[in-house]
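Supplementary Data S3. Sequence and structure tokens for construct A.
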Amino acid sequence: MWSKYGKAFLLLAKDGPGVIPSRDMVKATNSIYPYASALTVLDLGCGVGELTNAVVESHGSELPQSSRLVASDIAAGMIEQLEVRKADRLSEGAIAWGKVETSVDDAHDLSAFSDSSVSHVLAGFVLFLVPQPRTALKEIRRVLTDENGGGAFSMSSWLNLDSEWYHIMTLTSQFRPERPSMKMPQEWLTIDGVRGELEGAGFRDVDVYPVKTYLPFEGYEQLADFMMYGFPNMDRMTAGFTAEEIAELKRQTIEYVKSRHPTAPSKLEGTAIVAVCRK
């Protein structure tokens, strides 16, 4: 399912709501396990590589020659778009991108990575999407090294779904109330819930905190079109809508955004949860 959203995620990855949390996660993991001493860095559920890019931008020149930087996702379409991004960045002279490897993996089964072989695992907005997140956490902990005080793990989620782009998505429910709305497991929506999941999985020195993030837009019409035709999952939520319903949804989207942001360009706002810990 996620493969078809690769191009949309590529747009979001350049200036979307995942960029600020990604940079924070890389900074936080570097503080407890420097990338200059990295073994393997695993961007799990990489999408189109927001976290991979953050590692390359911040620490690409520091990574040991013997280390690996692996971008992994279960969706081949995401990997394809990341390969496009890699080629573009290499053509622009970002030579550190040449270190990036790609791999199609299921977060529940990281058998491609041996025990204690990974120094850093980064999982951006992914654990609440997998069917068995505790199984994924067990695998993450297995592959993390015991060296240097324990490998570093960082993940992100959304705080109480309070983001403005999520509110826009909920506007669709009035047209098809019988359809199930987008839901996330409650334990991944709160700081205490995320902390409890990580500590329960055996991670140490768990730190969990909110991070404000944004989705920039140039104009109201442009944003409404992107939300309805480009934003991940909106195609599913608007499937079968009549032309009149689409027009009304667009009108309501613009009205809502204007009520929150009276002038444009501006930025939709949201709050991420970032967690960082050790094995």
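Construct B, processed identically:
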Amino acid sequence: MAAETQTGSSTANKSLLTRLSEAVNVKIALTAFAGFMMLYIYAPIISLIVFSFNGGGLTFPFVEFSTEWYTVLFNNQGFVDATVRSLQLALVVTVITTVLSTAAALAYRYDFWGQRGLLYLLILGIITPGITYGVGSSLLLTELLGLSTGLWLATPVHVVWTVPFAVIILLAGFPRTLAENERAARVMGADRWTRFREVILPQIAPTVLGAAVFAFTLSYNEATRGLLLVGRDNTLPIAIFAEAAGTRATPELFALGSVTTILSTVLLTIGGGIILYSSN
């Protein structure tokens, strides 16, 4: 009797779901939901870019088109210096990350002791909260080791942040035939260096370049992990936080956010395009 009641209840639920799905066009509903989510994500970015060209500042509605705030931005020596420091740090971090992540990704073509543990350590660099890692790094590097704060002291912290992403990108983007081609070259008598130069590197170069672009973008936009390490050598994200916390959001910051957003989007698009090209 209980089984019959349960069966009847299940049938009624199914019929209710069937009637509901027939009454509502699922495809239209999912499309509307996706559109709402896209609007929710990108509306703040679009408004940031739009109001950076507003001659009336942050007032609404839009007053007039003007590039006044970009002129103010580029005349702000503090932001210019912070941008230069961010670019310098990102370039150094990108080089180190590219070398380490490429070596790690190539090593994962083989089985070795501690393979799984190393992967967990890499992922730990992603899941650890940035401010927590920044406080721990400050305690280790400045208090225990006695190193002076400065721009380059943030380098290892940024590398720990960027390497896991680069390794994941490389592992996903390496050609499936890479091991077979290397094995064929070894059978034909090519030494290790020749195999790397003539067989491996040409196949992985686009993916390596894409991973480097992602690493550059991550380092350029990183703030919390190096907050307590850079000292007076503020990077651009830290300078933005300091400016916004000291006063309030200004049209100048809107212009800076627009430039940074567009630059990051272009770099990520290039990196993604390179990786997709290499995978095909």
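The CA atoms of residues 39 and 46 lie 10 Å apart. The mean pLDDT is 81.
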